[in-house]
Design goal:
The complex is a heterodimer. By secondary structure, chain A is α/β, with parallel strands linked by helices. Chain A has helices at about 50-60, 75-80, 95-105, and strands spanning about 1-5, 25-30, 35-40, 65-70, 85-90, 105-110. Chain A has a single domain (about 1-110), classed as 2-Layer Sandwich (Nucleotidyltransferase, domain 5). Chain A is built from three helices and six strands. In chain A, a hairpin with a 4-residue loop joins β2 (about 25-30) and β3. Chain A is globular and about 35 Å long. Chain B folds into two domains: about 1-55 and about 120-280, Rossmann fold (3-Layer(aba) Sandwich), CATH 3.40.50.300; about 65-110, Alpha-Beta Plaits (2-Layer Sandwich). In chain B, the strands form two sheets. Chain B has a nine-stranded mixed sheet with strand order 3-6-7-2-8-1-9-10-11, with helices on both faces. A two-stranded antiparallel ribbon of chain B has the order 4-5. Chain B is elongated, with a radius of gyration of 22 Å.
Chain lengths: ~110, ~280
């Protein structure tokens, strides 16, 4: 399964970012390969609908789960309709949060 | 026909005060283009005569014809469409009515429909013509409504367009095709900052402008030297006065006209003088 996490930088000790749609970067963590890929958010400066385009990205990438702190209502609708589970991130680095996810201690939002 | 738009950058500097008083004094048409919060009518108290619904184009999706190809989603610059497992999603509040989605849809699953975003209405305050655009609650697409109220109110007379705050699309739509911009400046930090942004926009659009400084204490060197540097006409000032604030707060137009009679007359004739120069 691949997990999508909103992060402030393209490194494994980056903090999980406060917003989903306007997060500077996204990490895609592959559980099988235990490997991180990073993607710069090209929608960050969209005047409207940044969350929508990122939610569409998650749907297109067929990620198995999303970990983030906050998700807007429009992005949420797309995520729900795409049946992707969303987990609430505690404060922490990317690696810490992914570890917590693997231990099954993150709260599922959707 | 001569269009004067009253704009300011910062909100609450006195656009509506100047626009209603000036238009009422000269009997010019008053057009409320601040469609998110139109309030000129609170002072002008028109008797409304006509009302028009204003709509924008939106896609209508035939879900049985949609093949989930995603062409429309890829085309939309405003992220108004999304494709999910359960099908196409449309977010009307983000749609800018370009109808590109209809063009790129190969199965003709998207057709053109309309959605009401507000109303434009016309009334009379005595002999004065008053127009107002009023956006529906929860709507966020503003420029088409401003465009429509400007088009509907067009006639061969002088019009005062009471503009929205800011210098975003809503302000630009108000400024399109106008002859003169009347800036209302406020001598505060925030006021000066936004005033400069507004002047930048006007100079880039090549629109001649004059300034009225509202809530003047009589010592606004920074504002005045900036105005002089940018070659804008300083038409005059409105003093920071309790009686003006009280008259405005009570919606008492007559009291405002009594207070501001001579400056209004002077500003109006300066603007009209410019218009005569422009004709030659």
């Amino acid at each position: 399964m691949r997990i999508m996490i909103s992060v402030s930088d393209k490194k494994t000790d980056a903090m999980v970012s406060e917003n989903f749609g306007r997060s500077p970067y996204f990490a895609f963590y592959s559980e099988i390969q235990n490997h991180y890929d990073f993607l710069k958010n090209s929608s960050i400066n969209h005047e409207h609908g940044a969350g929508i385009s990122i939610a569409q990205l998650a749907a297109d990438e067929k990620v198995g789960a999303i970990i983030c702190k906050k998700l807007g209502p429009k992005a949420l609708r797309i995520i729900q309709e795409s049946q992707i589970p969303v987990y609430e991130s505690p404060a922490g680095t990317l690696e810490e949060v992914v570890d917590a996810f693997k231990k099954g201690i993150l709260t599922r939002l959707v | 026909m001569y269009d004067i738009a009253v704009i300011s950058g910062k909100g609450g500097t006195g656009k509506t005060l100047v626009a209603t008083a000036l238009s009422a004094y000269f009997g010019w048409d008053y057009i409320d283009c601040d469609v998110e919060v139109p309030n000129g009518a609170l002072l002008l108290k028109p008797i409304w005569e006509r009302s028009y619904e204003v709509s924008v184009a939106v896609p209508e999706i035939s879900y049985n014809k949609c093949t989930h190809c995603g062409a429309c989603v890829g085309f939309c610059r405003y992220n108004a469409l999304a494709l999910t497992k359960s099908g196409l999603l449309f977010f009307p509040e983000l749609c800018h009515s370009c109808m590109g989605c209809e063009l790129v849809c190969e199965t003709k699953a998207i057709t053109r429909s309309t959605r009401k975003i507000g109303i434009a209405k016309q009334g009379k305050s005595g002999e004065q013509i008053v127009w107002e655009g009023r956006l529906d609650i929860q709507e966020s697409i503003v420029p088409p409504l401003i465009h429509e109220v400007k088009a509907l109110s067009r006639r061969n007379e002088i019009r005062i367009l009471d503009g929205p705050p800011g210098v975003s699309c809503n302000c630009i739509e108000t400024l399109k095709g106008i002859d003169y911009a009347l800036l209302v400046a406020e001598p505060t930090r925030f006021g000066i900052h936004d005033f400069k942004a507004t002047v930048e926009v006007l100079q880039r659009l090549g629109i001649p402008a004059g300034v009225v400084i509202n809530r003047s204490f009589g010592y606004e060197e920074e504002l005045q030297s900036y105005i002089a540097r940018r070659n804008i006409t300083l038409l005059g000032t409105i003093p920071f006065s309790e009686s003006i604030a009280r008259a405005y707060g009570q919606g008492d137009l007559q009291a405002l006209l009594d207070e501001l009679q001579s400056p209004l007359k002077q500003w109006g004739s300066q603007i009209l003088g410019r218009r005569e120069c422009g004709k030659q």
